[in-house]
Amino acid sequence: MSDSKKVFLVIGAGAGIGGHAAKRFAEGGYHAVLARRSDAEGLERLVGEIRDSGGEASGKLLDASLPDSIEDLVDDIERGIGPIESVLYNLGAQIGNRPLTDTPLRTFELGWRLGCFGLFRLAQCLLPRMAERGSGSLLVTSATAAVRGNAGQHSHAAAMGGRRMLCQTLNAEYAPKGVHVAHIVVDGSVDAPDTLGKLLGDRFEAYKQAKGEEGVIDPGVLADTYWHLAHQPRNCWTHEIDVRPFTDTPWWNDNPPAAIDTKSR
Ligand SMILES: NC(=O)c1ccc[n+]([C@@H]2O[C@H](COP(=O)([O-])OP(=O)(O)OC[C@H]3O[C@@H](n4cnc5c(N)ncnc54)[C@H](OP(=O)(O)O)[C@@H]3O)[C@@H](O)[C@H]2O)c1
Questions:
Q1: Is residue 89 within 8 Å of 141, Cβ to Cβ?
Q2: Does the CB atom of residue 69 touch ligand 1 within 6 A?
Q3: pLDDT tens digits for 93-122?
C-alpha cells in the first residue's frame, strides 16, 4: 500500500454495520482493516469485495474478549500498515432476552467485557497515539439498551449503558486533543445477517417482511452516517446521534402511557 493511505479499523466486522462501514471507508480511500471473531470465510468475502471494487483491505480473525488481542492488533496495524486515523468499535453485547435468574455471572461479565471493557482497552492503546498525531476519530456503535433498560436485558443494558458513559469521559478528555469520539445509538433493527440474522434464524426473512419496506435499517445507508461523523470539521462535532427506520417509535416514546382521560379531570 502507498504511504499516504489512512487506516480505518473495524472491530466486529460482519456483513452488517461493520462490513458496510469498512466498504464505505475503503471507497473513500482508506485502507480498511476488518477484524471479526470466527467466520474466516465471511471475512475473506468482505475483504475480497473491497479489493474487487478497487479498494484496499486486510482481514484479521481475533477474539476481542481475550487479553492483549485488541492491543496487539493496534500495534501490528500501526507498525505494518500505517497510522489508524479512524476506528469503529462495533462489538455488541446482545444475548437475547434472559430473566435475571437465567443470566449466569459469566454471561453478565462477558457482556461487560465485549460491550464496555473492550472499548476501554481500545481507547487506552489508541487514543494517546491519535492525540500525539493531533487527529483521529473513534466511532462507537451502540443500541437502544444504552439508553433504556428493559426486562431481560440485564447484561446488555449494563454493558451498553456503561459504554455510553465511557464515550462521554473519553470525549471529555480527548476531544480537546483533536480526537473525535462519536456514540451512535442504533435504535432499530439492522439488516445484519451475522448478528440479528443468526439470533432470529429461520424467522429473519419473515421478520424483515413484517417490518415492511424500509422498516429495517440498511447498513449500507448507515455507513454514510459513519463516514460523515468521521469527517466533520472540528468546529462542528457530533458526540451522540441516534438512528431508526421511519416506522419505529423512538426509545424515549416507546411504551407510552394510556391516553389521558381529560373527562375525569
Ligand atoms: N443488528 C441489529 O439489529 C442491531 C440493532 C441495534 C444495535 N446494533 C449494534 O450494532 C453492532 C453490531 O453491528 P451488526 O449487528 O450490524 O453486526 P455486524 O457488523 O454484521 O457483525 C458484528 C461482528 O462482530 C463479531 N464479533 C462478535 N464477538 C466478537 C469478539 N469477541 N471478537 C471479535 N469479533 C466479534 C462477529 O464476528 P463473527 O461472525 O466472525 O463471530 C460479528 O459478525 C453492535 O454494537 C450492536 O449493539 C445492532
A1: yes
A2: no
A3: 988 899 999 999 999 999 999 999 999 999
Nearest CA to ligand 1 atom 25: 12
In angstroms, rounded to a whole number, what is the distance separating the alpha carbons of residues 19 and 177? Answer: 29
For the chain, what is the radius of gyration of the CA atoms?
19
CA distance 137 to 135: 7
In the numeric block, the cell 435468574 is attached to: 101
Establish if 263 belongs to a structural domain: no
For residues 31 and 29, what is the distance between their CA atoms, to the nearest angstrom? 7
Atom of ligand 1 lying closest to residue 198 CA: 39
Q: Look up the domain containing 54 and give its range.
A: 7-245
Strand order in the sheet with 56-61: 56-61, 31-36, 7-11, 84-89, 136-143, 179-186, 240-243
Which CATH number goes with the domain that contains 187?
3.40.50.720
Quote the pLDDT of residue 262: 54
In a domain, 148, yes or no: yes
Ligand 1 contact via 192 beta carbon (within 6 Å): yes
Query: Ligand 1 centroid to 15 CA: how many Å?
Result: 9
pLDDT recorded at residue 254: 77
Residue 265 within any structural domain of the chain: no
CA separation for the pair 206, 197 (Å, rounded):
11
Q: Is any ligand 1 atom within 6 A of the Cβ of residue 14?
A: yes
Specify the number of domains making up the chain.
1
Find out whether 191 and 219 touch, Cβ atoms under 8 Å. Answer: yes
CA of 193 to the centre of ligand 1 (A): 10
Residue 265 DSSP one-character state:
-
